[in-house]
Amino acid sequence: MQRIVVLAGGIGGARFLRGLRSAVPDAEITVVGNTGDDIHLFGLKVCPDLDTVMYTLGGGIHEEQGWGRAEETFVVKEELAAYGVGPEWFGLGDRDFATHIVRTQMISAGYPLSAVTEALCARWQPGVRLLPMTDDRVETHVLIDDPDAEGGADGKAARKAVHFQEYWVRLRASVDAHAVVPVGADSAKPAPGVLEAVAEADTVLFPPSNPVVSIGTILAVPGIREAIADAGVPVVGLSPIVGDAPVRGMADKVLAAVGVETSAAAVAAHYGSGLLDGWLVDTVDAGTVAAVEEAGIRCRAVPLLMRDEQATAEMARQALELAEEVRA
Ligand code: GDP
Ligand code: CA
Fold first, then answer.
1. Which residues have a beta carbon within 5 Å of ligand 2, which is an ion?
2. What residue ranges carry the coiled-coil annotation (predicted)?
3. Least CB-packed of 38, 195, 206, 306 within 10 Å?
4. Which of 209, 215, 217 has the most ligand 1 atoms within 8 A of CB, as the residue to mutate?
5. Is the pLDDT of residue 133 over 70?
6. What's the CA-to-centroid distance between 117 and ligand 2, angstroms?
7. What is the DSSP letter of 167?
8. How close is the Cα of 44 to the center of ligand 1, in Å?
9. How far is C-alpha 221 from the geometric centre of its chain's CA atoms?
10. Are 301 and 289 contacting, i.e. CB atoms less than 8 angstroms apart?
11. How far apart (Å, rounded) are the C-alpha atoms in residues 208 and 197?
12. Looking at the structure, do residues 38 and 148 belong to the same domain, yes or no?
């Protein structure tokens, strides 16, 4: 049986996984999910990316929105607001709240996040093994200018770090990100099963997830990048950048923070040939294929818009085909 490991963020990862699962229904798919986006709200532990994967593959996702539950209501949020209790900018619906309550209760009882995730997946049956990248706490922070503070002695504006969710959801990445820091990653350990899955994998895939705050954060957990590079199996990625812009969201802002141009070729170079063996770019970026190959990464241009499950399954087949080419 074919074993595939996929590093995944939220929407981009989840939608790709749905296509992959339908392209290779018999494969054993292990998903290493990003937990750098996790946030504590109202005393609850919220794991947006793990939940997006779980709900998307489990049939509970709000399809148009791409995150949160279908047929959601917001009574709890309204009641909290009536008490003046926020944040109001993070959309937690009633159905979603139940997930976070169960998760928080289990964590309080002493279960690691990996065990909690497995328990939640027992309900959703995502058809993949979903592992958090780590059981330890990692929180991505973004360094921005602080408009409220006096400038420093050097005349430069003072800066402050905000939680990634505050940057992404409240500020909608409207200000420049000077740095992206996965706080806690340095001392985090890969969750049980992560390194084993990589070691046993036939193929490792990077879906079109955010290269900095999704896949970059997973790779920042000591041991994971090394395990993938040393696994000796094809590592193939799909570009989240199509025609010099993210297909969805504001990935350009966090790419700029790490000094990477917003282009399919630049993202491939950012991962580097030491990690990546193959890279798929969209057909509109066919002109960059040669440059990526010169950098030592095998590259093909194929349609990369996840319009529906069929189109996405075809992307997954192309990625696996490229992996076979690399292997041969
Ligand atoms: P998030 O955690 O919800 O932000 O999701 P991910 O990190 O998994 O994925 C976000 C990335 O998915 C964004 O940078 C988008 O550019 C990319 N993306 C979304 N839809 C598509 C698509 O249809 N095709 C491609 N190639 N990328 C996409
Ligand atoms: Ca995310």
1. 9-10, 37, 49
2. none
3. 195
4. 209
5. yes
6. 16
7. I
8. 26
9. 14
10. yes
11. 21
12. no
Atom of ligand 1 nearest to the CA of 13: 8
For residue 163, give the amino acid letter. H
Can you read off the two tokens belonging to residue 159?
């800066």
CATH of the domain at 124: 3.40.50.10680
CB 111 within 8 A of CB 165: no
Q: Is 235 helix (H, G, I), strand (E, B) or coil?
A: strand
Q: What is the distance in A from the centroid of ligand 1 to the CA of 216?
A: 14
For the CA of 9, the nearest ligand: 1
C-beta 302 within 6 A of ligand 1: no
What are 236's strand-pairing partners? 205, 278
Structure tokens at 18: 């749905």
Task: Please tell me whether residues 163 and 308 are part of one structural domain.
Answer: no
Residue 155's pLDDT band, with cuts at 50, 70 and 90, is low
Number of H helices, E strands in the chain: 13, 14
Residues in the chain: 328
Binning pLDDT at 50, 70 and 90, where does residue 321 land? very high
